C-alpha cells in the first residue's frame, strides 16, 4: 500500500485509481510548475508562481477527481460520493496548483490567524473526517452550503503554509451557479485565486472577501470539540455561523 501526503493527515491511494504513484493527479502533470523569487507568509518561504492552474485546468481537475455535473446539485451529489482520501488529495492538489508549487505546501504546525491559534496538526485528520461525514449524511442541503462547508473546513483546519483562503474560495465557487456561467466564470476564478500578500506588495488595494467563521462566545479555533460542533451546525442551522465570499448560504434552498 503506497502512502501519499495530503494536508489532512496520511492518505492512501486505495480507491483512487486515477492518482499516480507519487500522489499527484494526471491533470497536475500538464506543465512543470516554476517559481520566480520568494515571499514570506506566516514565517514560511513561498515561491512566487509563474505557472498557476488556469480556470479551465481547475474544471478538468475537479471532473477527474469525480466532482462532475452541469448543476450545483449534481456536483453536490458527486461530492457526497467522494472518499475522505480523494477529497483530501483534491484539496491539497488545488492548493499546490493555484500557487504553481512543485510539491504540496503542507504546514506541520498550528498557525496564528488574526490573533487566534488554529487547530493542532495532529487533530486535523479526525476533524476532517467529521466534516466529510456530516456532508455525506446531509439530505436536501443547499449545494452552496455544502461548498461553503468544505471551504470553512480548509480555513478552520488551516493545513497549508499559504493559500488556505484561496483554496476555500474555489470550493465555494465549485458549488454555485457562477461555475456554470461561461461569461463570468473565468473572471470570478481569477479574482478568487488572487494572493492578498502579493497584491499588497504590488501596491494594489483590492479587497478579496474570504471565509470568517463565527464560533460564538467562549469557543476557540484551537479546540477540537468546538470545531466539531461548528461542523455539525453547518449542516443544520441558519443562525449566523460565518461570513463567506458570497455571504452565508442557507441550509435549504
Brief descriptors of the model:
253 residues, alpha+beta, two-stranded antiparallel sheet, two-stranded antiparallel ribbon, 9 helices, 8 strands
Q: Mind sketching the topology for me?
A:
Blueprint: E1 3-6, E2 9-12, E3 35-41, E4 44-49, H1 55-64, H2 72-80, H3 84-98, E5 112-113, E6 116-117, H4 121-137, H5 143-157, H6 164-174, H7 185-192, H8 196-201, E7 212-213, H9 224-234, E8 242-243
Antiparallel strand pairs: 1-2, 3-4, 5-6, 7-8
Structure description:
This protein has 253 residues and is an alpha+beta fold. It has one domain. 40% of the residues lie in helices and 11% in strands. It has 9 helices and 8 strands. The strands form 4 sheets. It has a two-stranded antiparallel ribbon with strand order 1-2. Strands 3-4 form a two-stranded antiparallel sheet. A two-stranded antiparallel ribbon has the order 5-6. A hairpin with a 2-residue loop joins strand 5 and strand 6. It is globular, with a radius of gyration of 17 Å. 40% of the residues are buried. About 13% of the residues have low confidence.
Short description:
With 253 residues, this protein is an alpha+beta fold.
Molecular shape? globular
Structure annotation, total helices: 9
Structural class: alpha+beta
Largest sheet: 2 strands, antiparallel
Evaluate the radius of gyration. Answer: 17 Å
- The residue fraction in helices comes out at 40-55%
* Strand order, largest beta sheet: 1-2
Amino acid at each position: 500500500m503506497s502512502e501519499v501526503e495530503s494536508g489532512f493527515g496520511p492518505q492512501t491511494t486505495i480507491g483512487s485509481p486515477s492518482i499516480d504513484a507519487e500522489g499527484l493527479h494526471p491533470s497536475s502533470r500538464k506543465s512543470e510548475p516554476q517559481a520566480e523569487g520568494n515571499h514570506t507568509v506566516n514565517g514560511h518561504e513561498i515561491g512566487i508562481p509563474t505557472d498557476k492552474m488556469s480556470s479551465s485546468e481547475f474544471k478538468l481537475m475537479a471532473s477527474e477527481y469525480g466532482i462532475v455535473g452541469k448543476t450545483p446539485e449534481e456536483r453536490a451529489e458527486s461530492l457526497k460520493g467522494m472518499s475522505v482520501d480523494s477529497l483530501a488529495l483534491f484539496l491539497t492538489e488545488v492548493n499546490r496548483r493555484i500557487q504553481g508549487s512543485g510539491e504540496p505546501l503542507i504546514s506541520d504546525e498550528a498557525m496564528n490567524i488574526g490573533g487566534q491559534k488554529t487547530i493542532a496538526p495532529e487533530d486535523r485528520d479526525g476533524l476532517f473526517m467529521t466534516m466529510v461525514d456530516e456532508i455525506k449524511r446531509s439530505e436536501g442541503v443547499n449545494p452552496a452550503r455544502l461548498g461553503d462547508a468544505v471551504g470553512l473546513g480548509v480555513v478552520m483546519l488551516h493545513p497549508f503554509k499559504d493559500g488556505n483562503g484561496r483554496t476555500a474560495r474555489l470550493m465555494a465557487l465549485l458549488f454555485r451557479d457562477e461555475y456554470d456561467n461561461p461569461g463570468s466564470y473565468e473572471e470570478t476564478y481569477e479574482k478568487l485565486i488572487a494572493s492578498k500578500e502579493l497584491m499588497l506588495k504590488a501596491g494594489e488595494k483590492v479587497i478579496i472577501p474570504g471565509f470568517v467563521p463565527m464560533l460564538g462566545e467562549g469557543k476557540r479555533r484551537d479546540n477540537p470539540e468546538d470545531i466539531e460542533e461548528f461542523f455539525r451546525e453547518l449542516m443544520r442551522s441558519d443562525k449566523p455561523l460565518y461570513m463567506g465570499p458570497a455571504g452565508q448560504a442557507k441550509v435549504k434552498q
